[in-house]
């Protein structure tokens, strides 16, 4: 391990010549707290400050009341900031199948479906329920990765359930959201990711437990772990800093910062 | 940017009831972690003062950091009525002389922040200019507001907050200049930048929550904030040195 990454964090320097992609981003306001500078522009300014090349985004409105409005917002942002904001297509399984089909076909017609984002907790719907059927059908047909919100003890989309589904869909990569949010979550997510090529773990969370990332790399390897921050739900600096300062090799840090995401998303 | 002089306001040592294999438990372990991360000083409390007895924990803390000038004591306190600790005036004076601080655990230690319970004690700490720290998980914003209204000169530092606090925090900051925030877990998007613009950098202090949480996240929140280098130095350590009365 050299001091390149550690020094960057201590001095607040944007990384030069390193690929950094935030695979778990949102956009816009949210109902129960204040988010300064939450627009696409405010986010890109923050990415610039930190040396983050791009983020993969699902607007807050999409994981909240209107996924269609969210999909429109993120496509517009991606048009305004190409290669900086990469869109997730978000699906809310509580709406009729005909509407889901129309939404998927619409964005498919513009070749805009790079990845799907689902939030079974906010939408109060189990990930293996029929409302997600069309989305998974499309994901299987086109090998599109799916990021799912997850949590320890999550009855809607726990790591074990996501892993079981990954076993049934070998060409769909399942990204387990918030995989480092507690020791029990880490144990479950790492256990499920071991031996499954299409299960990867997202580090998004407001804080990280001491030595947690080092333990995760020891168990599953850096190629199965990716950087995510929740920007602008949460500032991306802590998510970046915990990787830069970790007791890991430079190659492991590069995998987590961007190479895992580049591979999973085919960027 | 010049290297920042970090002074961590939120660390712990001591054997605790639920250690993890990777946790350090003593001052040597904390200092090793500080050296690795580039942290100059730390304010530290003892697990015994939280989980066993404040008096025993405070004594253990003094023993464990006696020869460590980079570690400053953070003592647990209790309401004075049960006389489990020295009188408020003597206690506050001792803490001040040690360039230390006091940390309150009202939920864990079963008391309220009502003035009937802690008023005399907070008066003494305020008189001696001893900073008081409290974890947001041990209290609530209404009680913090009442404490500050009754003790406006008290330097109060709220620890272990999160990214959802602005709607409670901003109104208090509009009114109380001595309210400070441990910003290590204050993950509001561009939140440090917003706070510095509106309220000034003097309100924020660097804290890690070692050994529970890692260092890089809290550090990056300061180093990558879009604020002046002078403001970063204040947040990294200048503000804590000021409220503790520690000279450079």
What descriptive keywords fit this protein?
heterodimer, A: 267 residues, globular, B: 248 residues, eight-stranded parallel β-sheet
Structure overview:
- The complex is a heterodimer of chains A (267) and B (248).
- With 267 residues, chain A is α/β, with parallel strands linked by helices.
- Helices cover 43% and strands 11% of the residues of chain A.
- Chain A is built from 11 helices and 9 strands.
- Chain A has a 6-stranded parallel sheet with strand order 4-5-6-7-8-9.
- In chain A, helix 8 runs parallel beside helix 9.
- The model of chain B has no long low-confidence stretch (mean pLDDT 97).
- In chain B, helix 4 runs parallel beside helix 5.
- The two termini of chain B are 19 Å apart.
- Chain B has an 8-stranded parallel sheet with strand order 1-2-3-4-5-6-7-8.
- By secondary structure, chain B is α/β, with parallel strands linked by helices.
- Chain B has one domain: Alpha-Beta Barrel (TIM Barrel), CATH 3.20.20.140.
Short description:
The complex is a heterodimer of chains A (about 270) and B (about 250). Chain A is about 45% helix and about 10% strand.
Report mean pLDDT of chain B, rounded to a whole number.
97
* Chain oligomer state: heterodimer
Number of beta-strand segments of chain B: 8
The count of helical stretches of chain B stands at 10
Give the second-level CATH assignment, the architecture of chain A: Alpha-Beta Barrel
């Amino acid at each position: 391990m050299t001091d390149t990454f550690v020094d960057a964090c201590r001095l607040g320097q944007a990384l030069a010549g390193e690929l950094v992609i935030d695979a778990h981003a949102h956009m816009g306001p949210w109902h129960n707290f204040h988010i300064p500078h939450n627009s696409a522009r405010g986010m890109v300014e923050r990415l610039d400050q930190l040396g983050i090349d791009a983020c993969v985004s699902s607007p807050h409105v999409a994981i909240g009341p209107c996924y269609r409005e969210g999909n429109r917002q993120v496509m517009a942002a991606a048009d305004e900031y190409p290669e900086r904001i990469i869109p997730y297509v978000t699906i809310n399984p509580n709406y009729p199948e005909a509407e889901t089909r129309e939404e998927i076909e619409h964005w498919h017609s513009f070749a805009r479906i790079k990845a799907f984002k689902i939030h079974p907790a906010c939408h109060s719907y189990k990930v293996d329920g029929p409302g997600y059927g069309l989305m998974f059908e499309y994901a299987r047909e086109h090998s599109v990765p799916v990021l799912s919100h997850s949590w320890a003890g999550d009855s809607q989309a726990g790591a074990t359930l996501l892993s079981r589904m990954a076993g049934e869909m070998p060409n769909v990569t399942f990204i387990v959201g918030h995989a480092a949010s507690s020791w029990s979550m880490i144990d479950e997510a790492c256990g499920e990711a071991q031996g499954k090529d299409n299960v990867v773990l997202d580090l998004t969370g407001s804080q990280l437990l001491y030595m947690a990332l080092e333990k995760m790399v020891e168990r599953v390897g850096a190629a199965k772990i990716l950087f995510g921050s929740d920007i602008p739900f949460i500032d991306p600096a802590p998510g970046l800093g915990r990787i830069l300062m970790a007791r890991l090799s430079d190659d492991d840090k590069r995998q987590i910062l961007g190479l895992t995401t580049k591979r999973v998303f085919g960027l | 940017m010049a290297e920042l002089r970090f002074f961590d306001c939120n660390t712990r040592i001591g054997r605790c009831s639920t250690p993890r294999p990777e946790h350090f438990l003593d001052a040597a372990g904390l200092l090793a972690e500080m050296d690795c991360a580039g942290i100059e000083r730390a304010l530290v409390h003892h697990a015994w003062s939280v989980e066993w007895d404040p008096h025993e924990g405070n004594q253990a803390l003094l023993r464990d950091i006696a020869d460590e000038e980079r570690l400053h004591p953070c003592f647990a306190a209790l309401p004075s009525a049960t006389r489990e600790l020295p009188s408020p005036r003597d206690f506050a004076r001792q803490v001040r002389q040690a360039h230390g601080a006091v940390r309150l655990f009202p939920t864990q230690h079963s008391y309220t922040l009502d003035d009937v319970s802690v008023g005399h004690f907070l008066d003494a700490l305020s008189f001696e200019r001893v900073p008081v720290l409290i974890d947001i998980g041990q209290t609530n914003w209404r009680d913090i507001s009442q404490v500050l209204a009754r003790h406006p000169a008290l330097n109060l530092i709220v620890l272990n907050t999160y990214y959802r606090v602005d709607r409670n925090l901003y109104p208090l900051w509009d009114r109380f200049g001595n309210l400070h925030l441990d910003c290590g877990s204050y993950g509001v998007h561009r939140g440090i930048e917003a706070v510095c613009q509106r309220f000034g950098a003097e309100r924020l202090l660097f804290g890690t929550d070692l050994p529970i949480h890692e260092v890089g996240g809290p550090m990056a929140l300061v180093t990558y904030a879009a604020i002046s280098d002078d403001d970063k130095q204040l947040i990294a350590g200048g503000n804590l040195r000021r409220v503790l009365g520690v000279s450079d």
